[in-house]
Amino acid sequence: MKRIAVDMDGVLADVYEQFFKLDERDTGTRKTRASVAGIKELEAFPHGHQHVLSDDFFRTAPVMADSQRILEALNKQYEVFIVSSATEFPKSLSEKQAWLGEHFPFISWRQMVFCGSKTIVQADIMIDDHFKNLDHFTGQTILFSQPHNILADAGRHQRVKTWMEIEKLLL
Amino acid sequence: MKRIAVDMDGVLADVYEQFFKLDERDTGTRKTRASVAGIKELEAFPHGHQHVLSDDFFRTAPVMADSQRILEALNKQYEVFIVSSATEFPKSLSEKQAWLGEHFPFISWRQMVFCGSKTIVQADIMIDDHFKNLDHFTGQTILFSQPHNILADAGRHQRVKTWMEIEKLLL
């Protein structure tokens, strides 16, 4: 059974929606995805770092469209691990585990990995929105489109824009 | 640079001391390491599961003798990752990260991995007190002696009883 390492932020959890919402609360205007295209997340939003550190930022993130149904199907045909960069923001650890428990109850604690660097991950397939995680990975790499990566050449990674595309690719 | 995956409970953190202390508080008598030899941790202590779930169990665990000095030296010659089974007890996540920050401040958040199963870990060397983590690992394996494993044949794993032995082996 092939093993897939699935990222959380930007793949399962719609963190951009959180940034847009909090930025709008601060500034009174809502940025568009086009306006932050090609800019790193924490550079695109002036108070982004502060927002990431705030209570419930990760706990209340919306779920990416179709990810629940498709991940549940993947979970039957693959060995799924959810691998999330989390230790940079210690408070996020328990929020992320609770969030997974609420939205992806078929994922057991055995399938969760909260880390800093993903270089230690051994799997066959990695789905992530960050080049820094995919570039060193030697297996099959799927780049999930998000504004920060949208202008870059995907290179050897397969770019997908939606979970429906992952479904077509892997199921 | 070779990568080492170092376990926390039973290798860096003296969780037996926590079990002995809390068991003595409950029963009025203190068990010895000999009396729990060969018995799984949570079977050796009647209220062990409850203790593991209690506040500060992991946060206040004593540090294993010599582990700070020797891990700091290893950290200069190896790529060190601290890999801890933690997601079974969600509350332990932040306690463990805070504990590492206090006792091993030279370990950055980039070097921490909190997971359920360690099958996903890719490294050259693994130091752990549990066969379930070492047995599937294809690199060099070092079994850290603890009462629960002390009666078993170490098999292909190199058994060490102290951090001084790790120092001799790897430095």
What topology does this entry show?
The structure is a homodimer.
Chain A: E1 3-6, H1 15-27, H2 41-44, H3 48-53, H4 67-77, E2 79-85, H5 92-103, E3 112-115, E4 125-128, H6 131-134, E5 140-144, E6 158-160, H7 163-170
Parallel strand pairs in A: 1-2, 1-4, 2-3, 4-5, 5-6
Strand order of the largest sheet of chain A: 3-2-1-4-5-6
Rounded average pLDDT of chain A: 97
CATH superfamily of the largest domain in chain A: HAD superfamily/HAD-like
SSE ordering of chain A: EHHHHEHEEHEEH
Spatial shape of chain A: globular
**Cα Rg of chain A:** 15 Å
Please provide the count of β strands of chain A.
6
Q: Which pair of protein chains has the largest interface, and what are the residue counts? A: A-B, 28 and 28 residues
Keywords:
homodimer; 171 residues; alpha/beta; Rossmann fold; six-stranded parallel β-sheet; 7 helices; 16% strand
Give an overview in words:
Two copies of one chain form a homodimer. With 171 residues, chain A is an alpha/beta fold. Chain A has two domains: 3-14 and 62-170, HAD superfamily/HAD-like (Rossmann fold, 3-Layer(aba) Sandwich); 15-53, no CATH class. Chain A is built from seven helices and six strands, in the order βααααβαββαββα. A six-stranded parallel β-sheet of chain A has the order 3-2-1-4-5-6. In chain A, helix 5 links the parallel strand 2 (79-85) and strand 3. The longest helix of chain A has 13 residues, at 15-27. The radius of gyration of chain A is 15 Å and the shape is globular. The interface between A and B is medium-sized, with 28 and 28 residues.
